[in-house]
Amino acid sequence: MTPSHWLRRWTPPSPGHALDLACGSGRNLRWLAAQGWQVCGVDRDSAATAPLRGLAEIIDADIENGPWPLADRQFDLVVVCNYLWRPLITQIRDAVAPGGWLIWETFADGHQRLGRPSRPDFLLQRGELLRALGDWQIAAYEDLEEGGVNPRVVQRVAAIRPRPGEQAQAPLLKSSDSQDIPS
User: Fold this and answer.
1) What is the number of alpha carbons within 13 Å of residue 154 lying toward its C-beta?
2) What does CATH list as the number for 5-180?
């Protein structure tokens, strides 16, 4: 189980507390734990998360139909990979501590011609992550189609939540698709 290359590239070097939301069988969670992060994983599939117990704090929860299980908790790093449920965007943002990072990558509009997911509810619109994080520092952003064995259309962002009194700054790195990055 190889972790996301976006996660490997943008994970801050100093370990702290991390949240892997919709962690599944834990490919990213395992890698973060191996890097020294104290990880909390959340997923509704208790069979998938069972092997992760002892490696990380595991919360079995249906976050789409049940209460948000992380009320008042914040993390130095929040990871969301291949998951989108728009009603939770505010809770996901709030779960990132001031000065903490959000690394999010998931399928985007255009992917439906390549396979699943194909429902618009599960596909980001062009620039949607940037709009959701407009007041954050964007370290990196991509909105692209990947070819190869598993072709897909994805959006990715690595963003830093401002500390109180800070304002968003210009992007640290512009992607090849920089017209969507606010300057």
Assistant:
1) 18
2) 3.40.50.150
